Amino acid sequence: MKNEFMLKNCRLCARNCSVNRIEGKTGFCRSTDKLKIARAALHQWEEPCISGNRGSGTVFFTSCSLDCVFCQNHCISQENSGREISIKRLSEIFLELQDQKAHNINLVTPTHFVPQIIEAIKGARDMGLTLPVVYNTSSYDNIETIRALEGYVDIYLPDLKYYNDKYAIKYSKVKNYFNTASKAIEEMVRQTGKPVFDDKGMMKKGVIIRHMMLPGLLFDSKKVIDYIYNKYGDKVYISLMNQYTPYNKASQYPEINKKLSKKHYDGLINYALELGVKNGFIQEEGTCSESFIPPFDNTGV
Ligand code: SF4
Question: Residue 30 CA: which ligand 1 atom is closest?
Fold first, then answer.
């Protein structure tokens, strides 16, 4: 009932549209109460403690509450590719990924479907789902949304994209990003506590905060690292990503219409090391290849 209410007056993300999605109304994310996904399959390109050697059981949800001009997944986040499915079908998909030996269930861009996802996790657990659940988000989640996930999510994989909101407004078309994201992450860390790994090094519980560096934003990226490390120390992992590629509408923004410079990425890594960050992940050169973007062709849907 509480979950249904979240869709009747939708404030799942900080767009706070307050629309009744059960009556078919839509807000910024263009989603009604019908679940929509574009791919459910094993995925190798997450952090090693998430992908392991068998892959992460990744479910890509259609739509997004952000509107990033450089989004590499724009055909599902902004152009509505995907297929509507029932909550029961989502439970079945989780179990199919478990049968394929996924290390975990990885929910990608899930914010606008949280009430339905909670029901699907409950259903799947009743039918035998035992895998950890990963919540992989832009972090533009209202804190109540994250609170509702307590007991259903084991690992949080939140982005912290920008420190200065002027970049969030310009490149992701979103207001009050840092304040919203930092509060959401605080609640995630409260829920999971320190990271826990199994004897094979796979994460079972914890928070990995991702930051994808954009060209020309080294100063802002350093602020993001400062914030995370000063607040959480080694209680979280930081994943510094260099996979930025000027997709989608980036050509309209000359300053980011280029690849990230190696010098800047190395500079950020050194900055983090000098600060004392020990729990981190970095990406190798070449991670910005298109081959890392899976086909959104309704596989596994
Ligand atoms: S999820 Fe966010 S963008 Fe979508 S309707 Fe709800 S408040 Fe609006």
Answer: 4
Q: Which of 30, 65, 140 is the pocket-test mutation for ligand 1 (most atoms within 8 Å of CB)?
A: 65
Listed residue (201, 170, 176) closest to 281, CA to CA:
201
In whole angstroms, what is the distance from residue 75 CA to residue 90 CA? 21
Q: What distances in angstroms separate CA 195 from CA 85, 96, 104, 208, one per listed residue?
A: 33, 27, 15, 9
Per-residue pLDDT of the chain (301 residues; tens, 9 = 90+): 467 789 999 999 999 999 999 999 999 999 999 999 999 999 998 999 999 999 999 999 999 999 999 998 888 888 888 999 999 999 999 999 999 999 999 999 999 999 999 999 999 999 999 999 999 999 999 999 999 999 999 999 999 999 999 999 999 999 999 999 999 999 999 999 999 999 999 999 999 999 999 999 999 999 999 999 999 999 999 999 998 988 889 999 999 999 999 999 999 999 999 999 999 999 887 655 555 678 888 899 9
pTM of the model: 0.96
Strand partners, 155: 134, 206
Residue whose CA is at the smallest distance from ligand 1 atom 4: 29
Residue with CA at minimum distance from ligand 1 atom 6 = 10
Ligand 1, atom 2: nearest CA belongs to which residue?
13
43: enclosing H helix or E strand: strand 35-43
Written as six digits, the tokens of 280 are 């981190």
